[in-house]
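Consider this one:
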Amino acid sequence: MKTSRTALIVAALLALVGAGWYLSAAKPPPPPTEAKAVPVITAQASQRPIPIRVEAVGNVQALAVVPVRPRAEGEVLQVHISEGQEVAQGDTLFTLDARTAEANKRQAEANLARDRAQLDRARADLVRYQDLLKVGSATRQKVEQTQAEAIQAEAAVRADQAAIDNARLTMGYSTIKALVPGRTGTINAKLGSLAKPGDSQAMVTITQMRPINVAFSVAESHLPRIRAAMAAAPLEAVVTSTADPDLRAVGYLSFIDSAIDTTTGTIGLKANFANDDTRLWPGQFVNVTLTLGTETQALTIPAEAVQSGQNGTFVFTVDDQSKADIQAVRVDRVVDGIAVITQGLTPGAKVVVQGQMRVAPGLTVSERAPQAVKP
């Protein structure tokens, strides 16, 4: 009795399992789910006037940095300047002891007086012996000897005059003046110290602050445009600084180097600035912008749309079916967040501005309304 009941239970279980398998086999599989569209923000490539600018990092350089050294030896009797002082050309910086030069000058003047007296006597003797030679009372040898003595006396007088001039020059060296206008640095010549022409350390260094130069380099590809702009009119250069947000100095390009640096492919340039307010300081790093003109029909896209890869720059484009693709582009320049494209796009093309990290070629994207490029 128990055996037959157990058999009935097993048979019922087998029937239920078979029915479930049948139903599952007969039920059709669910349809495949479509890939979800990737949300992105796009913009359209458009043509507009864009200034042709060249930007670089420059270094402020003084027109002249003059180390002041003595030209004659002497003790420093007076220091007329202080460190960091603005001096004009011709201002007195130091006064040295000139007593030795003054003594040499007095000695040369005494020698001059003596030799002039000897010259006068030699000339008088020469005239007398020439007259005696005419009447036969003197020999020609005596006349020639007297003539040589007069010439020697003339040479002695000229040497004495040169010694006087040299002493006066040395006395002038005792007053040291500024050869250029500028700002003084550390004063190394202290009151009472001995200044010598052979000293390795300058007494003080004067750095010319006005006007001032900014040196920078740009890619050699910009050289033709820069030369053409300079030929048409003075090329304006604008300097700004991240360290000094209020700085905006305007100058003019004054120098183009004579050769391109083959190791870096750049050309050296310099711009000159009046620097009346001394906002530009020698050694300072600044941002330099040259405006070479305006391109009236430049093809532009937002700069954030441009990506960099192993094969160069590219953008993600979106077609009419909302499919993404990769397009290689060539960027000429970036101006105020706008990239100027010279190859790879046509006006009206849609490019992905935000969301590139989730985009791949062939994926469907869900784009927002295309944004116009900000002017």
Summary: The CA atoms of residues 304 and 328 lie 15 Å apart. The chain is about 30% helix and 35% strand.
